[in-house]
Amino acid sequence: MPTKKPGNSSSQPTSKPTQKTIAEITGLAVTTVSRALKGDDKIAQATRLRVNKVADEIGYFPDPAAQRLRTGKTKIVSLILDPHNEILGFGNSLITGVAHRLASTDYHLNITPQFLQEDPMEPVEHIVRNRLADGLILSRTCPFDERVRFLRERNFPFATHGRTEFGYQHSYVDYDNEKFAYESVLRLMQKGRRRICIILPPAQFTFCQHLNYGYMRAIRQQGLDCHIPKGITLDSDMPEVFEWAQSIVQQENAPDGFICPGETSFLAIANAYRQAGKERGRDFDAVVKSSSTTLNQIDPHIDTINEDIQEAGLLLATNLLKAMEQPEGPFAQTIQNPEITFEPLKTNRTDR
Amino acid sequence: MPTKKPGNSSSQPTSKPTQKTIAEITGLAVTTVSRALKGDDKIAQATRLRVNKVADEIGYFPDPAAQRLRTGKTKIVSLILDPHNEILGFGNSLITGVAHRLASTDYHLNITPQFLQEDPMEPVEHIVRNRLADGLILSRTCPFDERVRFLRERNFPFATHGRTEFGYQHSYVDYDNEKFAYESVLRLMQKGRRRICIILPPAQFTFCQHLNYGYMRAIRQQGLDCHIPKGITLDSDMPEVFEWAQSIVQQENAPDGFICPGETSFLAIANAYRQAGKERGRDFDAVVKSSSTTLNQIDPHIDTINEDIQEAGLLLATNLLKAMEQPEGPFAQTIQNPEITFEPLKTNRTDR
DNA sequence: CATATCACTTATAACGTTATAAATATCAGT
DNA sequence: ACTGATATTTATAACGTTATAAGTGATATG
């Protein structure tokens, strides 16, 4: 016996309840049911209550496909995830944050992977052209990010993790990387370091500029030399960074202070230095941007500055929800403040 | 000027092309266009080619909402993600793997977060009842997993990361945790360790049993004592594990060998032991299940056994795709083999 | 009493697709 | 030319929802 018949639904208690089911039970028209469920003022309150009661009783849930077809609203937020080199779950934390924020709404979260070899515009264009989502979250912006320009031109709601340098506004969440870099230099100086090196992200990203500004500002202020490795970035994989660190550690003017905006680079560098007999705290120091407590478990004395990625996801979702309500703006923009929790310095640090 | 009018689409080159647009251009009926696009034999090949050519030219893309409403197929795979305690991007790797596999299909990936306080059945029931996806991927199964039973009863396609102990079959991908535990014991014995401790996952999960079997089998075979900490699991957070390790390290019969099926537990234990003056390699050893090269960058000499999570995602998606094609089975089942890459032992190991 | 106003309800059509059944054209065999 | 078979195309309806416009009564106004 087939489970579905084309017959009317009232004779089929097993099939999924629709507004039609409610209409048949209450004796109302489907239109009335639809509007009652929407809470329309024009429907008598008694009717609204009755409809909602029946809906609850029979376990009615609106068909997303039908709503989407009719309204054009997908109720989907798509997070375009760029699987860059990261260990401590950047993507995962971001997803968790976004998901938490969306859980109390009727939006669903969709992950669109950005494959490395692929044109970054491709998924964006595809989603916009075919209305595969109502809103988009992008990460790792460039100063004049093509994707941002495209989305702004079409008034498609989005929020980015990272700023741009366009003349117009858009929703974003960013981390104060300039402050991170600046404070890191000062901290390393406090520890007596003078040859301070920063690992930067690939140059095209906005946050590379920010890190660079903060670093350079501090370096100039303090009259230090600038140490920026060629060919090594935040996205270089660990063996690469390791090899590079091995190649410089024996040099006379090898850096004795490192600013690592990512945990992996630090681990690779520390490993290379350790193998060369250099000890962290005695021969070199580092300030590492960390997104979890893991690094401090590996070594509680490493100076870390925190970036709360899960919160970033939460904020991104919040800002995007606003942008979807009001596609013309104003746009919510949030800068996350670096959480600095350095240990107090020992007074006899210089002779250690 | 408004961009959309209710008028016919041929006069509106800006609006999204539909089958109707193609029908108007080719002079065919919409039905014919639909079937031609599907590659139906009953449509003349010349027509099929012509329709496809026009579709390409005008950039036709089928409306997922309409297809979904009409066919009931969502073309969505939902991954239910349990944000358990993990550092090195388990969720992220799994997503990446699944996404890669789905990229060549017309399925989209949807992430449904499983919040800790929430009933695990809730998202599953919701998705099945309201047909929010065509297939489901679950992680961390229990031997008699409610979710699995529910899905099997309704013939809803799914694949799990982890086995169950039901009498019936279903698609899964799992890791040979028994072998992992067994080989780990042997390795630690080779290194001269006799008080070998294993950190187990929470007892309700199937893979806890597997780890336990492997461990106990080796322990008995070798005539060792069993060391399983009470109150500490794979999901305990790092400070908890750290404290526990601190509390045991000074005991006379403190473990000198650890089997860690997760990186975090190892880091916390190693940290506590280090602080107590114990050195890895000299005073204790560990075998750690690792899903990336990160740990070996922290210390290349740590014995690790690999679990390729991204591959697991790929396999899960592959197996699920099969299950969606044939909901009655047979079900693809894959066991991932532990990748063991121990360094050869030094011959003078006993006196180190 | 006719009509305007209000509060509420409803019929109709449409979103874009596809399953079903029906229709048309083509052709071979008589 | 008629029949039947085959190949190809088409009309119709339906999936479940909602926007639009139209329809009820009931009450108030002139």
Layout of helices and strands:
The structure is a homodimer of 352-residue chains.
Chain A: H1 19-26, H2 30-38, H3 45-58, H4 64-71, E1 76-81, H5 90-103, E2 108-113, H6 121-129, E3 135-139, H7 146-153, E4 158-161, E5 171-175, H8 177-190, E6 196-198, H9 206-222, H10 238-249, E7 257-260, H11 263-275, E8 285-290, H12 294-298, E9 303-306, H13 309-325, E10 333-336, E11 339-340
Parallel strand pairs in A: 1-2, 1-3, 3-4, 4-5, 5-10, 6-7, 7-8, 8-9
Antiparallel strand pairs in A: 9-11
Chain A binds a DNA duplex (30 and 30 nucleotides) through residues 6, 18-20, 28-32, 34-35, 38, 42-44, 47, 62-63, 65-72.
Q: What's this, in brief?
A:
2 copies of one chain form a homodimer. The first copy, chain A, has helices at 19-26, 30-38, 45-58, 64-71, 90-103, 121-129, 146-153, 177-190, 206-222, 238-249, 263-275, 294-298, 309-325; strands at 76-81, 108-113, 135-139, 158-161, 171-175, 196-198, 257-260, 285-290, 303-306, 333-336, 339-340.
What features would you describe in this structure?
The structure is a homodimer of 352-residue chains. Chain A has 13 helices and eleven strands. Chain A has 352 residues and is α/β, with parallel strands linked by helices. Chain A folds into three domains: 9-62, 434 Repressor (Amino-terminal Domain) (Orthogonal Bundle), CATH 1.10.260; 73-175 and 309-339, 3-Layer(aba) Sandwich (Rossmann fold), CATH 3.40.50; 180-307 and 345-351, Response regulator (Rossmann fold). A six-stranded parallel sheet of chain A has the order 2-1-3-4-5-10, with helices on one face. Chain A has a five-stranded mixed sheet with strand order 6-7-8-9-11, with helices on both faces. In chain A, helix 2 packs across helix 3, helix 6 (121-129) packs parallel to helix 7 (146-153) and helix 10 crosses helix 11 (263-275). Mean pLDDT of chain A is 90; it is low at 1-13. Chains A and B meet through helix 4, helix 5, strand 2, helix 10 and helix 11 of A and helix 4, helix 5, strand 2, helix 10 and helix 11 of B. Chain A binds a DNA duplex (30 and 30 nucleotides) through helix 2 and helix 4.
